[in-house]
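pasting for ref
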Amino acid sequence: MRQLLVAGNWKLNGSLELVFALLSGISDRLSEVGNTEVAVCPPFIYLEHARRQLQGLEIALGAQDCSDQQQGAYTGEVSAAMIRELGCKYIIVGHSERRHLYSESDATVAMKFERVRESDLIPILCVGETLEERESGHTEMVISRQLDAVLKRSGVGGFRHAVIAYEPVWAIGTGKTATPVQAQQVHAFIRGRLEAQDKEIAAHLRILYGGSVKPDNARELLQENDIDGGLIGGAALKAEDFVAIAAAGDA
């Protein structure tokens, strides 16, 4: 039985006041969540503040990105090893906003995935298609390409301690959500791709859905066989909504 994971991606949002208030609100409601694992991913600059506030609480800490380099003359970059020192468990890699707004290639994402694993952290690998790609019938082709880049570099064994998040780009921040059937189909495809190489790894791999998940659609999504949680954007900035989504997995 795969434990559900609900991770909040705060993106470029926050302040010291918001960090305190949001984490306080989440921790105050944590008893509502049940067996679902909860994680939060604030901006880099607030990770240490979050770490201090989360001490002793069953809330995992994650980062939104990392460098594809370990160290050196890379001004402005933050390595996975640095992030590990702040007590993080997860690092998101390959989010669609990194791929499309900052032109990160599949090869770059695969390198970041490897750097996270080398630092004994757990990568949350994001994959997903644009609206144009979906309407052209290329969803599986795009996701296969994104997965293959990581498989080529890290092998299927790289997914033994990893998480995948399927995030249809057309459903991020748009208010649109893939139907549970649409999401399940893609999640099953992803699991099947890895199952062809290693059934045990595929069976234990957690695949999250990310794309305008809200309290009113979370339960239906999380009831699907291959949806093991959510990577939450906008709703993660409201403690009540975020906890309601996490609690939906046990409903």
